[in-house]
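tool=predict chain=A
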Amino acid sequence: MEDERVSNHFLGGVLKRITDWFLPKLPKAFRKFLEAHKNEKLESLVIYRAPLDHVSNGFLNLLTAGDWNAIKAKSSIDQLFHVYAIINDKYIYEKTALPQFKMATHNDIYREEADNVTVPIHHSITLGQFCDRAALKMGDKFFSYDGFTNNCQDFLLGSLQGNHLQRPDIVSFFKQDIKKLVENVPEWSRYLGKETTDLAGAGERIYSEIVDKHGGVRRRTHNMEHGRRHWM
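tool=predict ok
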């Protein structure tokens, strides 16, 4: 909570609050995609776990003034993972700076360095219900992002819990305990991390309102998605 209050005084936090006042909480790409697919049944859900890439680790090293590997070692963590879900064998559901729901790429589904686990689905759920229940369970945390306290792993956990799909063995596959890591990261690093993602998220929401069309498909082939990076 303290991190969020401090971040609100800087550019990223201010821009996030401005976009919160004037724009819907979900980016237009997500809203349009869900509008087009909300009545589809949730037939399969596979959770993928991929180690953070060298760019993301480089950003975290910069964010901690070169101490990232030492902080991980002190926290008894070898590596961190970005996690996401592939739904119905063709859609990717994840959170980077913002919640994302869109067509998956070949690399998303067949990422060589990623492990995956299939979530059993025992009751009828539409994609619209899946998202509504996830948002109801998580509240404002469904829409916001913090790499240390409300990241991609928390997003999937809340989504599974909201739809009664969580199972201890599945949760342990993708949800890392990073409490000690967070304690060892300097406060100013956490502030800068939140500031960066707030700025990126606000910028993406504005961009999405301008360029995204029906179905959540970008008007141009070359889009911000190709250059996206996630650090948790």
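Residues 2-211 form one domain. The two ends are 19 Å apart (CA to CA).
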